[in-house]
Specification:
11 strands, 2 domains
Length: about 375
Amino acid sequence: MKQQLWIAARLLWRELRSGELNLLIIALLIAVASMTSVSFITQRVADAMQHQSGDLIAADLMLKSVEPASPTWKDEAERRGIDAANIVSFASVVLADESTSLSSVKAVDEAYPLRGTLITAREPYAKGTPTPDVPLQGEAWLDSRLLHALNIEVGDKVELGNTVLRVSRVLISEPDFARNIFNTAPRLMFNILDVKQTGLVVPGSQVEYRQLFAGESQAIETFSGWLKGELRHGDTLQGVREVRPELNTALERADRFLGLTALIAVLLSAVAIAISALRFARRHRMTSALMRTFGAQQRDIINLYIAQLAILGVAACMFGIALGYAGHAVVIELFKEMITTDLPAVALSAAAPGFMTGMLLIFSFALPPL
């Protein structure tokens, strides 16, 4: 086997030096580079859109339920390298001295948010700044409308059920607040460790439990598949594609358009490869005949040409992938002013379609004439 590969490599090197395979190589490079560049672009844009859409739910994946999430789900997520956070939401009356207001209350743990940024301020209706932490135990963040409705300021105290919380900051913006456009009630955020002390979450209460997950795209996809088999009655699993289906539709249309362009290049390359292989086969009829006279069997001759095509295909595909990467980088650079977010790094898996296309072309269109 090694000797056959060595002979195939030497014969291939001779053909390359003579320029016999230039057309086939160029066609293969164009096909692989076209397919790979499209794959790289769509992969990076899709990952960026998924990450940006994740800001709308403060995560990549969200589980909604009417009962607390199973602890095993968080353990499984962490085992897979996925971050998890918990939220408890409900409506309640908030009191401050003689003032009251019905509010949308959200209790969060220290991991929230997994995507996006919390914006808070020291004064109502201020622009605010990004805040990396969440309310401490015994504290609450109120939005400007709730502060105005209760006629209080930062530093005052409010009553939520059976507990008293000190207002430490003004809540300006939450990454997942736009999730429900019909939720117009003033907002209060506090630490999830204070939920039990309020006495408001009891059997029969209208409470929404949310568990958030964020991580690498592949890990989230496999974890989502596992979690679907663990769901209970009343559980709802929602990803960023369900949150913003219009973004997913736009990406699919762009992918189809770019894919069609690459397909045209692949078809033209296939024709060129077939023509080049046919010319190559005609020129080597005498070589094949001489090999038979020296005792070589038909199977050995075919295996020799297959080995040459395999070596040529792998080498051309690797160079084509490199060209595709360079081409996609040029396209990204040309349209960088239109791209409003940072694109993630290229995933190696995005090169697979180009490599598979190249090998399929060379064995489907170059091998039959031989």
